[in-house]
Amino acid sequence: MHMTSFIQSSGLKIMSLVIGYGLWYVLSRPIPTHVEMTIPVCFYNTPSDLSFQAPEAITVCLSGPRPLIAGLDKNALALHIDATKLSLGKNAVTITQDSLFLPNHIKLVSYVPSNIIIVAKQTQKGTSS
Prior knowledge:
This protein has three helices and seven strands. The protein has 129 residues and is an alpha+beta fold. The chain folds into two domains: 1-29; 32-122, RNA Polymerase Alpha Subunit, Chain A, domain 2 (Beta Complex), CATH 2.170.120.30. It is rod-shaped, with a radius of gyration of 27 Å. The termini are far apart.
């Protein structure tokens, strides 16, 4: 009699273990989070003889696991543009993960304005006012 009660309780223990593991697996998965923020437009490798007309900031929507989104240093985020890749006149710029320096698991979902135009102009040297 003790053997059958042991077998029956073992079945319940195994069943509860499977159900517990299933619940843990479903509930512990990272929940993707979306966040929208305004970030500045920054230039690097800027030649001293060029000036740029560009939006001061853009609005981006990012998606990723909640802990990574919460851990983002929002003050350090910016759109980074390599000025050596711009030509004189109008330049259409495409925003990518790389230009925002985002961690691997955070994705760029969208951005506004959708068409970013940067105008590069030659500065005049030696003029006085």
